[in-house]
């Protein structure tokens, strides 16, 4: 882990902490988060711990809740919404009768309650997934037929796209137009893409000499636990299910407590597509109970998680109980570097998309902008001007809205706390920092941010960007890398040599040259350092869901 050290004279360098200090910092219990204090030279003066906010709503008992509800969404759409846990292709009540409330951040009103899984429900789901994994209806289904099921699922998602988009908009506040054009399109494409891969997963033959035949089989890992966040509810479900199903695994997927509805609705479509019972099980539930039970369950072979680095660490620890295979995608503080030869107008537009889309609730958002000194003022003026016009804040069900509320009141409060921190530590607020309505944060831009400022180090996860100035290419690379994260990065320059050299030097899982955040389901997605382990999307994700088995065939070595 690295932290920033600022030397006198404005030259920055990274300083590694000793292994002992790292261990001390990482040895947080699950309720505390370290806050680092810097002295005037930028070296760490002290570390304190504040209570880490838990954004989940707590569950309550309500065993008379029906298994379906007739809902009417704010756009008038009538939806038959499943409320139960989806296990063995059926919606069932939680054993304890516990439920959680799905709330919309648009006005903090309750949408409905859904059943919330407890450890005993996870147990039932694991048994269903294990039986399905062993049942010939799934284990002996040909890869091409698995692909056909995924194609059918993609078609059904397409058919129900208005409902699924409406559910995500209602549940987490993302503009409906964005949900349809981006989340739904990406989810459908992801299912189709992995449908195509199902019959193309092959092993190798390895020539070790004439007396032996060696080949590998790429076999499914088994029962997979998948824990997803709230920022792209349906899309994260598709990213997780696609490669796991294409390779023949069975699944227990837990949605985020802030956004359980679209995953449950998808459960119906999974059954309709023809997946055998128990292949996909979908649980609503809280992280600390249901999520923790999945991460530590000895009947689960693999865990795939997307969410905070903080929770990622807890999951890794819990998953060590039976050495689960792990894929983790966590947070970021991704830099966007603009050199003085760049097309500034394009840099402005991409930088806006890179941080303001989804109200900044994007793991790979380019939330730090580093600008070369000659174009620093020009970039900031144009960026502020463009951002104040391009972000249309409003009711996410309105056609024109591009910027909805933060996912929850607590998440909103967290972003606003960073506005205060930014001001207090001496960065200059040049746009926003205000709240036009409950749970909404206006696009917020800070300039003259220094590397040791909290807003340059911690993931804000809001429409909030920290801009600072650099002189040389070497300085830009060093400062881009001065973070404990390594998810995405963007570079703007017309010099192709520089573009590729800088891209190679940046410590990140993904680098965009002259764009930002235009990811694609066919391209590997994931991070280095504390941004994660493994890759989602593309062919690379298949490796996360298969084990290579080596078969040795003796062709004549006689003893
Ligand atoms: P979180 O990481 O706590 O939640 C993500 C998922 O993990 C949810 O399904 C949650 O129920 C589950 N979870 C929570 N605690 C768990 C545990 N002990 N064991 C197993 N599962 C557990 O994130 P949260 O609280 O929703 O947001 C906090 C911050 O995390 C955000 O401000 C943002 O910085 C970051 N985040 C990053 C995301 C990404 O895409 N990488 C997505 C969501 C949040
Ligand atoms: Mg909600």
Automatic annotation (TrEMBL):
InterPro entries in the record, alphabetically? Ald_DH/histidinol_DH (IPR016161), Ald_DH_C (IPR016163), Ald_DH_CS_GLU (IPR029510), Ald_DH_N (IPR016162), Aldehyde_DH_dom (IPR015590)
The EC number(s) given in the record are 1.2.1.3
What organism is listed for this UniProt entry? Pyronema omphalodes (strain CBS 100304) (Pyronema confluens)
What are the entry keywords? NAD, Oxidoreductase
Which residue windows are coiled coil? none
Q: What is this protein called?
A: aldehyde dehydrogenase (NAD(+))
A single GO BP term for this record reads: carboxylic acid biosynthetic process
Q: Which family does it belong to?
A: Belongs to the aldehyde dehydrogenase family.
| PROSITE patterns per record | ALDEHYDE_DEHYDR_GLU (PS00687)
Q: Which domain of life is it from?
A: Eukaryota
A single GO molecular function, which one?
aldehyde dehydrogenase (NAD+) activity
Give the residues annotated as active site: 329
Record-annotated Aldehyde dehydrogenase domain positions: 91-551
